[in-house]
Amino acid sequence: MDSVSDSRHVVIIGGGIIGCCIAYYITRHPSYDPDIHTVTLLEASQLAGGSSGKAGGLVATWADPQCIAPLSHRLHTELSEEHDGGRRWGYRRVNCADVDAMGDAVGHVNTERDGSQFHPHATSAPKLTDLPPGLDWILPGSITSYTELGTPENTGQVHPYLFTTSIASLAEQRGVKIILGSVKKINYSQDGRKAESVTYMLKHTSEMHKLSATDIVIATGPWTKYVYPAAPIKESRNHSIVVRPAKPTSAYVLFPELQPKVPQKRIPPEIYSRPDGTIYSCGPSDEDVPLPETSDLVQVNQEACDTIYNDIRSISDEIRDGEVLIKQACYRPIVQGRNRDIGPLVGPTGIQSLWLAAGHDSWGIQNGPATGMVMSEMLFEGKVRSADVTSLDPRRVLNVP
Ligand SMILES: Cc1cc2nc3c(=O)[nH]c(=O)nc-3n(C[C@H](O)[C@H](O)[C@H](O)COP(=O)(O)OP(=O)(O)OC[C@H]3O[C@@H](n4cnc5c(N)ncnc54)[C@H](O)[C@@H]3O)c2cc1C
Ligand SMILES: *[C@@H]1O[C@H](CO)[C@@H](O)[C@H](O)[C@H]1NC(C)=O
Ligand SMILES: *[C@@H]1O[C@H](CO)[C@@H](O)[C@H](O)[C@H]1NC(C)=O
């Protein structure tokens, strides 16, 4: 291992939550000295332009994988305390539950006509009397079970776009250079065993540049296959909407479950009440449109967004009388493999100087801080102190000689 005084030139590829957290935690490492080390983050389109700016933003100690989730949750609390996260990125504690949702109990919603997911005529279903009293923005009778997943003790939320861009500017203040440019190629030594530099195209001028590095960290989420085809990372698109409800809603995140008694065609949308007075809701994934080359080119299917709205307005007057502010879509990075519990991949690739931090699936916002911290320890110390991340080692799934 190099001694800490050796100067490191770290290039991070990708300005989503993972790249930004890695940049930030490198600058927080005791060995980091901005006069000795350089850290450059290259982002192809826009910071947080992918799922990092369009996610729900739930953070929880009980997230997957358990080897980093509790650490990351603690780091969220610390970041928020240190940098006024409540004000800057909407950090707050929240309740979270699985619910069986039955739709409008009086049957205003016609399933066939508007395609609403929740069953409209379920008046015979048992009504749950012990809903939390604070959950007053769901129509009585439209939820028939409430199974607590998280409480304010172990669950919270952030506004993902504000969180990611805030972490990026904190990293910048501590010496990280952020460049809008797209990495076209990672250059290797002649024997292919060492990564030496990246070739990138500046976004605004299309000029090509080369940047040499002692360490190259790939944090390109679902786009990883374009820069590093060996990585078994695929993508899946989910649509989501942001609604301004007619009245402010209390701090709950609801995961409606499939109602076993009612034949279902699709997975019901998740519902997140947010501290900025909006409600975020995301629907199931679809494989209709393959990943476009950049986040600017992600297509939004209006109908998929309308379906989400129709679903959630059927169980809440506040939502029904509200206004849809945003319709959007984004791609989650998923580690391919027979075992669907594999991922994310965080650590050495087996090629010298080349590191991977991608495949965070549904929990990248939550697991970004721990990913950043363990990567900073790998870079500066050659091993990880803060968590046991052997199960995330990319070399387990990469076939590097
Ligand atoms: C609908 C939805 C809801 C979600 N809700 C939650 C939630 O509640 N809680 C949670 O923890 N997680 C959630 N997630 C998951 C989370 O959004 C992702 O795991 C996380 O954003 C992935 O971050 P990333 O930085 O790896 O990828 P991205 O956010 O995709 O960032 C990758 C970046 O790399 C850039 N890039 C790509 N190629 C290049 C290149 N060649 N050169 C330079 N830059 C490049 C891209 O432009 C992009 O900005 C949700 C995801 C979805 C889809
Ligand atoms: C990097 O790769 C590009 C494209 O193959 C090549 O033109 C360039 O000379 C390489 N640079 C180095 C330093 O190897
Ligand atoms: C996205 O779609 C998948 C599959 O339909 C679903 O399980 C998941 O809950 C959706 N939302 C997120 C944030 O992944």
Automatic annotation (TrEMBL):
> For the FAD dependent oxidoreductase domain, which residue ranges apply?
9-378
What GO cellular component is one of the record's annotations?
Answer: late endosome
Keywords on record: Membrane, Transmembrane, Transmembrane helix
Its GO biological process terms?
retrograde transport, endosome to Golgi
Pfam families assigned to the protein according to its UniProt record, in alphabetical order = DAO (PF01266)
Could you tell me what this protein is called? Answer: FAD dependent oxidoreductase domain-containing protein
| Organism whose genome encodes this protein | Imshaugia aleurites
Where do transmembrane segments lie in this chain?
9-27
What highest taxon heads this organism's lineage? Eukaryota
